[in-house]
Automatic annotation (TrEMBL):
Top-level lineage group: Bacteria
Pfam families from the UniProt entry: DUF179
Coiled-coil ranges (or none): none
InterPro entries for the chain: AlgH-like
Protein name as catalogued: Putative transcriptional regulator
Length: 146
């Protein structure tokens, strides 16, 4: 597996947070793996979070069960958002969050350019490999984040 791999949950994960989840892996190395559930809308909008109440109502996604106190984002606008980490193709993780918020609020980027996540998915080294081996996840190198 590599960063940029997409994982689809199988029926083995039904009745869990990961039921019908599609994950985009953003990191995969000897420290472990990190990714985001890209198909699970969060029940609140960005402007419903207290510190962003003056922002536009922008969709949030439930990125995973880890570190749900922070926001993360994937985008495909490195020309506008600096400091992101390249994941695969034109997908970048993070970067200048204040600039991203400014671009959202001024309608300069849209849902087709950026996804905001509450939380992420994380696995220790080889833990995800074991879950794939047991049949909990199906790997795909083809997927769409936006």
């Amino acid at each position: 597996m590599n960063a940029g791999t997409f994982l689809n949950s199988t029926e083995l994960l039904n009745d869990s947070f990961f039921e019908k989840a599609i994950i985009c892996l953003t990191e995969y190395d000897t420290k472990g793996a990190m990714g985001f559930v890209i198909n699970k809308p969060f029940p609140r909008k960005f402007n419903e979070l207290q510190e962003f109440k003056k922002s536009l109502p922008f969709p949030l996604y439930d990125g995973g069960p880890v570190d749900r106190e922070h926001l993360f984002f994937l985008h495909q606008r490195p020309d506008l958002i600096t400091g992101g980490t390249h994941v695969v193709n034109n997908i970048y993780l993070g970067g200048d969050f204040k600039e991203a918020v400014r671009l959202i609020n001024h309608h300069l980027i849209s849902e087709k350019d950026i996804k905001l996540f509450i939380g992420y998915c994380g696995w220790d080294y080889m833990e995800l490999d074991e879950e794939v081996k047991e049949g909990s996840w199906l790997e795909s190198s083809i997927g769409e984040v936006f």
